[in-house]
Automatic annotation (TrEMBL):
InterPro entries noted in UniProt: ATPase_NBD, Gcp-like_dom, T6A_TsaB
Domain Gcp-like, chain residue ranges per copy: 28-148
UniProt key word Zinc: no
Keywords: Acyltransferase, Transferase
Origin superkingdom: Bacteria
UniProt cross-references to SUPFAM superfamilies, sorted A to Z: Actin-like ATPase domain (SSF53067)
GO molecular function term, any single one: tRNA N(6)-L-threonylcarbamoyladenine synthase activity
Family designation: Belongs to the KAE1 / TsaD family. TsaB subfamily.
Protein name, per record: tRNA threonylcarbamoyladenosine biosynthesis protein TsaB
Length: 233
C-alpha cells in the first residue's frame, strides 16, 4: 500500500510517504511557509521512494483542528491531488496524530493544541491492543474547562496546549497527569500510519466529501456567510 500524507495544522509543516509500512518524512517548524514547502517536499519524497503518483493508493490529510489557514491549506492540497489522480482521501484527526506520537509506553493520552484566544483544542485517547482509540469528543475550550474521562490518572499530555496560558491545562489536571510534552507537534508520519489503518478498514472517502474540523463556531459561521454571499451574486 502506498500513501502520501500532509499535516500543516500547526507551525510544524510535514509531508510523508508510506510504502508498505516504510515511512519517509519531511518536517520543519516553518510558520507561514507551509504553502511553499508542502508540494516540493511531496515530489522529493515520492522520487526518493521510487513511487510515481499514479502508484499511490490514497492521499491522507490532517483534517484539524488547528490553525484555520493551515488546516484549510492541507485539505486543499490533498483534495487537489486526490481529484487529479482519482484517488480516495483519508482524513485523520490532527489531535489523534499528535497522540500517536506520544511515548510508546503511554496508554492514556491527552492531546492538546494551543488554539490562541485563551483556548485549547483537546481530545483524549487510549492505546488498546495496538490501536489508538478516541475516548472523548474533540473540543475547543479554556484550559481549565478540559475534562478527562473518569477512571483515574496516569494520563500523558502532548502538545502546545500544555504551554498555553502559562501551563494552565497542566495545572488544572493536577495529579491525573504523569507528564506532559508541551513542545510536541503533529506529524505527517503519524497521519500516514493512522491513515493506513483507516484505509484498511475501508474508511477512505471521495475527496469532495472530506471537510476540515475547525471546531470554532465562529469559523463555521464565517464559511456559511461567505457561501451565502456567493449564492446571492
Amino acid at each position: 500500500m502506498k500513501l502520501l500524507a500532509f499535516e500543516t495544522a500547526t507551525e510544524g509543516c510535514s509531508v510523508a510517504v508510506w510504502v508498505d509500512g516504510d515511512v519517509r518524512e519531511r518536517f520543519e517548524i516553518a510558520p507561514r511557509r507551509h504553502a511553499e514547502l508542502a508540494l516540493p517536499w511531496a515530489e522529493q519524497l515520492l522520487a526518493e521512494a521510487g513511487v510515481a503518483k499514479a502508484q499511490l493508493d490514497a492521499i491522507a490529510v490532517g483534517r484539524g483542528p488547528g490553525a484555520f489557514t493551515g488546516v484549510r491549506l492541507a485539505i486543499a492540497i490533498a483534495q487537489g491531488i486526490a481529484l487529479a489522480l482519482d484517488r480516495p482521501l483519508v482524513p485523520v484527526s490532527t489531535l489523534a496524530a499528535l497522540a500517536a506520537g506520544a511515548p510508546s509506553d503511554a496508554t492514556r493520552i491527552l492531546a492538546a493544541i494551543d488554539a490562541r484566544m485563551g483556548e485549547v483544542y483537546a481530545g483524549a485517547f487510549e492505546r488498546r491492543q495496538g490501536e489508538l482509540v478516541a475516548v472523548s469528543t474533540e473540543a475547543v475550550s479554556p484550559p481549565g474547562a478540559v475534562a478527562l474521562p473518569d477512571g483515574g490518572g496516569n494520563w500523558h499530555g502532548v502538545g502546545t496546549g500544555f504551554s498555553a496560558g502559562e501551563g494552565a491545562l497542566q495545572g488544572s489536571l493536577g495529579g491525573r497527569l504523569v507528564g506532559a510534552d508541551a513542545t510536541a507537534l503533529p506529524r505527517a508520519s503519524d497521519i500516514a500510519r493512522l491513515a493506513a489503518t483507516a484505509f484498511a478498514r475501508g474508511e477512505a472517502l471521495p475527496p469532495e466529501r472530506v471537510e476540515p474540523a475547525y471546531l470554532r463556531n465562529q469559523v463555521a459561521l464565517t464559511l456559511v456567510e461567505q457561501q451565502a454571499l456567493r449564492d446571492s451574486r
